[in-house]
Amino acid sequence: MTNTNTLLDAAFRKAISQSLGFEADPLIGLSQNETFGDYQSNAAMGLAREVAQRSGQKTNPRAVAEKIIAQLDLGNMAEQVTIAGPGFINIRLSPVWLADQLTARSGDNRLGIDPAAHPRKVVVDYSGPNIAKQMHVGHLRSTIIGDCLARVIEYQHNQIIRQNHLGDWGTQFGMLIAYLRSQSQDTDARQDITDLEEFYRQAKKRFDELPTFAEEARNTVVQLQAGQSAELAAWRRIVDETRRHYQPIYDRLGVSLKPEHERGESFYNPMLQQVVEDLLSQGIAIRSEGAIVVFTEGFENPLIIQKSDGGYLYGTTDLAAIRYRAQKLGATRIIYTHDSRQAQHFAQVFATAARAGWAAGVSLEYAPFGTMLGADGKPFKTRSGDTVKLKDLLDEAEERAFGLVSQKNPELDEAHRRQIARAVGIGAVKYSDLSKDRTSDYVFNWDKMLSLDGNTAPYLQYVYARIKSIFRKAGKLPSPSAGRLQLDTPQEQALAKHLLRVGEIVESVARELKPHLLCAYLYDLAVRFSSFYENCPVLQSEPEIRQSRLALCDLTARTMALGLDLLGIEHPEQM
RNA sequence: GCAGCCGUAGCUCAGUUGGACAGAGCAGCGGAUUUCUAAUCCGCCGGUCGCAGGUUCGAAUCCUGCCGGCUGCACCA
Known about the structure:
Elements: H1 4-20, E1 28-30, E2 39-41, H2 43-55, H3 61-71, E3 78-84, E4 88-93, H4 95-106, E5 121-125, H5 140-155, E6 159-163, H6 171-182, H7 193-209, H8 211-225, H9 229-253, H10 272-281, E7 286-288, E8 291-294, E9 303-306, H11 314-328, E10 333-336, H12 343-355, E11 363-366, E12 372-373, H13 390-408, H14 414-434, E13 442-443, H15 446-449, H16 457-474, H17 490-499, H18 502-512, H19 515-535, H20 543-567
Parallel strand pairs: 5-6, 5-10, 10-11, 12-13
Antiparallel strand pairs: 1-2, 2-4, 3-4, 7-8, 8-9
The protein binds one RNA strand of 77 nucleotides through helix 2, strand 8, strand 9, helix 11 and helix 12.
């Protein structure tokens, strides 16, 4: 169903062209202050000059606004259209129209959110853990932001291709395999992830200290990359072991990544030589200081695609991936959810891919994010200064949440409390991240994210649980389409107007790649519902009002559930 | 040195891409509970939008220059 802002945009466009004789953007937006109205058009101010130029007569914004309104046909949408200040056109939606719209949406399992008019094939590249290492907090943001974007864009019926670009290739594996061999470790024996990390540390040490070992490690890489079976087998075991570590973390986080989404760096290995050759033959890449590089305007240093020793780098892999995703997978939009420190790298890679013609008709979008900081404003670390393991972080989140649930609801049995604690604890960690604009650094704070006050996951989950509680007490569920909504009180109207906006929000999240817009929307929804809940009794009211309010509750619960689903956050029936 | 990001209330953050008197939450202060989960709600207090210019009807937002912070910068990823 068409979003309100789209309906207004169309009506105003028509009115502008009829009254002024030319086309212009009506600049429709939400009112910043609800005392003015619900939506506003800010076009008249800017248009006044153009009107004066075209007609050769002096005019002013308010007069232009008058002309536009004279031609404006909003049907029964608006209760009031007024001109204010220098020439703002304020629109107040009519409660009857609102009620009709919402009634229609309550019968729709998509809550009136339209699928994309032109569905696309969209690659989302996110998470990308390193093989032979445990996941740590540095992987958290990419994993959950990327997953949220994938869910939102997928909900619009675009075809999403999740790509987990594992760090599974490169010199470090030669080192690790050579070390395991030299330890006369039975390479057939299974190594735990923590063993692998320890071996890696020792291998690195020996690599730096022993030139003969360094040489051996380099040879092993060559053998691995040439596909020697023994080395390949050892490598596969390392990858498998690492997956046994990270897949449970994805599952626990409620992240939709599965093994079939893995396309690690190794996958592109066979394509790298061709990438370099093609860039050379197109004259895009050149030889410089023994390496093969691409210079990009605006950057002093080049993107190196082949080292002087013949080895390839991650830029080469990224270029191969773009070509593969565009040409083989047929993607027309490729989204990278990666650390903002990669900005220059991606700028150079995107520019190179564009010059090579590999991204024709493809939108390459980099959705960077900042660093997780501790309370001291420095990167989030353990007390001893180590990086925080994701597993430990999630353990602590659940443990803290379990403490809170036990305190608030001691009568629930332990298994139930554990289950709620999982939803609340993990949800809190994810939400505290998703609710901030991803581009800036953010401060990690356990107490704030687990608080039931303010813009937190537990607060949203609580609102959902409260509604569910009403329905448990109400007995049989109302039929959503039974009767029409009655929006008599300010709280009901405020809630209704907000419910109607969900489609606009989903659209902006997908377009701007900003999950925090959805969080802000859901928080606002929770606040409005809470106000409604305080002021408007549901079950005790007269039958018609009761039915209408139950329908509002049902819509709120479904909207909240959908929003939390898109964020990848659970919503327990009870808290 | 070059490039990028950032600076908004005591703290954590928004600010719909140039619109109306800059908004939330937390903390602080004061209220509300015979009522569907008080894990809640309502009110008050709190800002020279880093500083200075400029662009224009209009700037937290765009441009320039300072100040302060973070990040990246040739063969790691």
